[in-house]
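Q&A log
Question type: sequence-to-structure
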Amino acid sequence: MTADPVLDVRDLRRHFDGVAAVDGVSLAIHPGEVLGVIGSNGSGKTTLVNAITGFCRPASGRVWLRGRDITGRPVSEVARLGVGRTFQNLRLFEDMTGLENVLAGLLGRTGIGFWQSVTPAGRKDAASRAQVMRTLDLLGIGHGAHVKVKALSHGDRRRVEVARALVADPVLLILDEPSAGLTSEETGDLVGALRGLRDVNSAVLLIEHNLTVVDRLADRVIVMHSGAAIAAGALSDVLAEPAVRSQYMGLDDG
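Response status: OK
Response body:
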């Protein structure tokens, strides 16, 4: 690719009690590209995301977002600079509607205060409401706009969370295990909605355990094991590598 990367991570390291949770990981994601990160539980995937987004400070290495060094910057600042994120465990306001939850997602990028965005006065902001509805419709969850999210299915709540991360037009969208806890039907619906994001110029970092989801969405993947990236490339190619077959898939070719 010739375009400068949206996200450029160089030799990132993070340790907990002497254990290398992230051990010298480097990666780059370009505009419009989906990079998948796979690996077994405890391989360091979520710690990698946390170190990129400011939830924990890396011990060493650098993170650049569109050429700007964001290494160790606070979560709020990283969000304002254009990073949207979902979480493996849903973090929604259960007693608020889908529209109110997604309006809250404007907080980090537009300067709209949280309570301003979810109170009746804030909800009268026609431009904000229209932006939220476009995002909900893009993800096929417009029917949940005026429903409290606790009344929605798990799959629909997942889509509300993605909409909240996407609503402020991030330059980098990070999806952490978006299919976790979904049925096969819900996963198919979510993948269909996420494939629509290819029309958006955001770069996407996809952390995912479901290889079918990865195969349908990711342009490239990296495989993590014990905090390190042990392979990178097309999914079919990396799954054929001996180290991946042994360390990640538990297969012995001997």
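Response note: The CA atoms of residues 23 and 237 lie 23 Å apart.
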